[in-house]
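User: Predict the complex.
Assistant: Input components as received:
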Amino acid sequence: MSDISRDELDAIYAFAVELGKQAGQMLKDAAQLRMGGGGNTKAQDEHVQKMNSVDLVTETDENVEAFIKTQITKRYPSHKFVGEESYSKGASRDYLIDESPTWCVDPLDGTVNYIHLFPMFCVSIAFIHKSKPLIGVIYAPFINQFFSSCAGRGAFLNETQQLPLIRNPIAPMPEKAPAGCVFSCEWGKDRRDIPDGNMHRKIESFVNMAAELGGRSGRGGMVHGVRSLGSATLDLAYVAMGSFDIWWEGGCWEWDVAAGIAILLEAGGLMTTANPPPDEATCPIPDVKLGSRLYLAIRPAGPSLTETGRQSQERTERNTDSAFDSIASSGVKYSL
Ligand code: IPD
Ligand code: CA
């Protein structure tokens, strides 16, 4: 684990857990203010647009990020901080995560959900070292779900329930996966209605996953269901739980996925890019690189009589990928 000792990492984890709880409480308080709770009459948390009318930021995003940044800077002044709102305001568009100890934070993931009081919104905090997300904390206060993980310590829901949820035994991936899987994906913020644009490519992939086996020129996945929570980091927490089997996304920023990756990997999930090497025999599926913008996550899987859990995850990845051909091979640069 390099130059951060076990004890140091455990202390950072304990700090991150407390920080997540406080930040999540701020989100909950802000939402309740909007509901007029506790005699307060502040009805609105004004939002403004960033890149378009579905890319939004509220005062709460800003306040919670400022709080988290201040706490981290006080406790760990030598650590780097990358937060969605600070990054959006800065001039640099460089890839900011390097080998140094870095905090990567989305103060409010699922801003559209928060604005509409659809309860799938959360704070997402990751601690990264040597480019690897080692600690993840995700707190969705409206549904009382607190996810946390630290490398070597396991991944948990509400600090006691180890992930994945089904673990006696941990189920292998379905034999005909993606058939029989719950597939999660997001519509994204790029709504340009152009045939070769991101939105159309995504929709094509969703339909491929849903269509009957043999349909869509052999790309039909016949998944059990297609879900969109509206929060990429919660999607990943749900893959870590095993409630989602497969998650795919193109265009996520590091703060959208860093905490979710930490939790998913610690739970035993697979995180890779949506572009596996073609030759199964000689090229293993590569581990994800934070910053790749294209991600495919597979839930934790146990062994069957014929495969290890990892083999069943890789089989699922390769079979799923045919649904995404148009995206993975397009070289499209997702900007939202
Ligand atoms: C967004 C959500 C959404 C995902 C976008 C993210 P925000 O984050 O996670 O599900 O599709 O890529 O930007 O704006 O709510 O923090
Ligand atoms: Ca956000």
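The two ends are 33 Å apart (CA to CA).
Let me know if you want any component modeled separately.
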